[in-house]
Amino acid sequence: MTALSVAPNAWTKRTGTERIVPIRELWNRLDGIFSGQWRSRFPDEQAVENWCREWAAGLHDEMVTFAMVKNGLEQLRRQMGDEVYPPTLPEFVAMCKGLPDMESAFMEAQLQAGAMNFDEDVWSHPAIYWAAVDFGMQALRLTTWKASKARWVRLLSARLSGVCSPVPAKLPKPVYRHERTEVGLSALQGLRQQLGLRS
């Protein structure tokens, strides 16, 4: 592998007794997990270097540690199946940080967007609520994960990497009181007398 032309950070510096480059080791680990499906995405060594450059910078900016990456790789292995594809950088960062799974968060947002009509929505994380607001509650109810994955991942990743306000508190439901006034009672008594009914 050629020297990475990126600002030095923990992901690009050689480390340990074997002097490995951590970001290249991550590339190798993902290659091991996804086998040919991973390697086929990189037609030449320049493509590998481009990936390493972007991911090293992204992991550094997101303050992802080596220990967090270990958790992310373990989560990937647990999810492995025919329909599992290599993660994007935002998806992998979320796995490393133990943040909500993107698809599960999307399903939650769809469900809660519908529940909002009855003031019964409950959100597990403020970022999911605000990403749903950014997406549009009505649009969420009318779309599918497959059609909206890229947009949802982008919106939720942006919310997860920033500071999210709490989910707005619900306004108390109005209480309607039926107060019995003297005027009302008098009118009711008069109606009863006209109809020949007892009080």
Describe the protein in words.
- 23% of the residues are buried.
- It is elongated and about 100 Å long.
- The protein has helices spanning 22-34, 36-39, 45-61, 66-79, 89-96, 102-115, 126-135, 137-142, 145-161, 182-195.
- The protein is mainly α and 199 residues long.
- α1 (22-34) packs parallel to α4.
- Residues 1-6 have low confidence and may be disordered.
- The protein has ten helices and no strands.
- It is 59% helix and 0% strand.
Question: Notable features of this structure?
Answer:
mainly alpha, 10 helices
Strand content: under 5%
Principal-axes geometry comes out as: elongated
Give the count of helical stretches. 10
Q: Helical residue percent?
A: 55-70%
Structural class comes to mainly alpha
Distance between the termini: 97 Å
Kindly report the average pLDDT value: 83
Kindly state the number of beta strands.
0
> Stretches where pLDDT falls below 50 for ≥5 residues?
1-6
Radius of gyration from the CA trace? 28 Å
The SSE order reads HHHHHHHHHH
Outline the biggest β-sheet: none
Summarize this, please?
This protein is mostly helical and 199 residues long.
Could you outline the blueprint of secondary structure elements for this entry?
Blueprint: H1 22-34, H2 36-39, H3 45-61, H4 66-79, H5 89-96, H6 102-115, H7 126-135, H8 137-142, H9 145-161, H10 182-195
